[in-house]
Amino acid sequence: MPGPRHLCSHTSALVACFMALAPVPAGAGRLVFNTEESPPFNYFQDGKVVGTSADIVRRIAKDADIAYDIIVGPWKKSYNNALHQDGHCVFSTKFTEAREPLFKWVMPIEISKSVIYKLKGDPFKALSLEDLRGKKIGSYSNDIWVGYLRDANIEVEEANSDYVNMNKLKTGRIDLWAGGEGDEQVAREAGIEVEEALVFAENVIGLACNKNIDDHIIERLQEALDQLNASGEAEEIRRSRYQTPVP
Asked: Are 55 and 64 in contact (CB under 8 A)?
């Protein structure tokens, strides 16, 4: 997808993507933080990965005195790197009961909303998930809200990128789109305007790390995050990025 979410854009992002397609070994005492482009949490700007989650992860690694690299790639690849490669972590990762035993977690980095979007101006209104029954809902393949909605017996049509979903929404092949907080920018990149129809869940977002990473390293990162949250600095980072237009 030539936009900000799930596939890379911009020349600098493409370089990082190519890095992510091949295994990147973590050096001794050095972690690899995998991520995707998903504003406002993590995205490329002026050749650097920025965003609320990226800035917080970078800050806690510095405070914990841990060396790291950040690589950007498709979400599935980034997730699998952290799942299977020593020394790898992935953000911004939604915490679920199913994922809990698969990783060592540092959280919360964010609390994000899961959102049903509609075309701007669409009169459709939803007060609960029940109101979605009978609607054609599109979502990114394997994303967390696909399972959430299906568990509620709501049919979801998956696509391999959100730009496919945007085209379907624009042409009427789906009625609604399930996405994350801030995904209005994804639609804007695709040339359409959307608005919230329903917020159906809140998600704890964390840094999910390979289970072979030493517990002491995870504890140092968690302590740094706890201090950043307690001081209010993490919330300042979140607010500043949400108020900054995403390119």
From this structure: no
Q: 0.90 exceeded by the pTM?
A: no
Calculate helix-pair angle for 75-84, 11-21, nearest 10 degrees. 40
In a domain, residue 23? The reply is no
Contact 34, 71 (CB under 8 A): yes
Give whole-number Cα distances, 198 to 55, 158, 242, 246, in Å. 29, 19, 20, 23
Q: Give the Cβ contact number of residue 10 at 10 Å.
A: 18
Shared domain check, 152 and 117: yes
Task: Indicate which CATH number applies to the domain containing 215.
Answer: 3.40.190.10
| 137-157 CB burial, b ≥16 within 10 A, e <16 | bbbbbebbbbebbeeeebebb
pLDDT-flagged residues of the chain (< 50) = 1-22, 243-247
Half-sphere exposure at residue 186, Cβ-oriented, CA atoms within 13 angstroms = 33
Q: How far apart are CA 173 and CA 159, in angstroms?
A: 12
pLDDT number for residue 66: 97
pLDDT tens track for 170-229: 999 999 999 888 788 778 888 999 999 999 988 899 999 999 999 999 999 999 999 999
Residues 216, 150 within the same domain: no
Residues 58 and 92 in one domain: yes
Are residues 87 and 117 both part of a single domain? no
How far is Cα 115 from Cα 199, in angstroms, rounded to an integer? 5
Q: Is the same domain home to 143 and 120? A: yes
